[in-house]
Amino acid sequence: MRRLMTTRSPLAASTSSRTWIWVQLAIGWLPLWALLTVLMAAVHGETVAAAVPGAARLVFGAALLGWLVHRFVARNPWPHPIRPLFVAKHLAALTLYAFGCMLFYSVIESLLRRQPVLVVGPGFIPFFVTGAWFYVMVAAVAYANQAAARASQLAALEARAQLAVLRGQMHPHFLFNALHTVVQLIPIDPRSASRAAELLADVLRAALSEPRDRVTLAQEWDFVQRYLEIERIRFGERLQVREAFDAAALACRLPSFALQTLVENAVRHAAAPRIEPVTLGIAARVEGDVLVVVVCDDGPGADVASIAQSAGTGLRRLREQLKWLHGSEAALTLASEPGAGLTARLNIPQRAPDLADDDE
């Protein structure tokens, strides 16, 4: 077997939740607490254990006021280019934040000592610089999160656009092949051609009205059956289909037109080139949290390498669809031997992708 799709998908990367961001920030303050503890112990000539409470109060106040910095950053996105007003706003906010850290620390100390005190540590300037350093750190993290969120949104929009393009490409590809079937029937059997045209209209109506990136296997199989009814008019008894679906598999989701693409490929390469009867086997089962779909035929077989390198097949578009929806977690593999037909296996993870449209 030859693995045909191994690209990492941007869909696999999503924006972190607010809760996780705050957890990350809390973890980020711990090293600062340790650093300040050591510095305070060195400056005041205390033991590390004695400096721990003071460092904790300072870090706690800086982290609490950091929430206001996050709100300020959210209201003042990073401009391109940087404007003087943007710099002035941050200088003012930095000053207020540094004084706020001093005030918060002094209030806590006053409550502990039960008398008003103003604490400036080793001096006003060092304390102010420490507060400014805290502000720059918090603002930098906030702007980094903003940039990551924008990148994630752009990746999501790109994925949506690519999937829409792929659906738009699959429809003409399918329409061309189906129309070819109808055209071939017209001089041979006009009545059958008329019936095939009616079925084709129903199939296209269903295809064009499907806006979702993923559908259940039951829905996809219903669509494929309509397509196979058209092909049976063309091939008659030469085309036999055997299906075997586990009940659990029918409720699983897969990319829209995925099964149809595999079946269409089997009909095109196994049944169309020969006059002998051809049997298509279509099966689906669930292995753990993965939907496994297998489409095989007993046709003449095919060169798997040439199919993988082909730029004009529905399989290429299916691989791209898998890449955008599931990244490297999904796989399409082909196996073939001369005279032994072709087997296509599709593995689809059932963890819903972040950007897939799963609405019914």
Q: Please identify, by name, the CATH architecture of the largest domain.
A: 2-Layer Sandwich
Rg is: 32 Å
Q: State the separation between the terminal residues, measured CA to CA.
A: 35 Å
The name of the CATH superfamily of the largest domain reads: Histidine kinase-like ATPase, C-terminal domain
Please list the strands of the largest sheet in the order they lie side by side. 1-7-8-6-5-3
The total count of helices amounts to 10
Going by helix content, strand content and strand pairing, the class is alpha+beta
Helix residue percentage: 55-70%
**What's the quaternary structure here?**
single chain
Q: State the name of the first-level CATH class of the largest domain.
A: Alpha Beta
Number of domains: 2
Low-confidence stretches: 1-17
Shape descriptor reads elongated
Mean pLDDT: 75
Q: From the 3D structure, determine the CATH topology of the largest domain.
A: Heat Shock Protein 90
Biggest β-sheet: count, sense, barrel?
6 strands, mixed
Number of strand segments: 8
Q: Report the sheet-strand fraction.
A: 5-15%
Order of helices and strands: EHHHHHEHEHEHEEHHEE
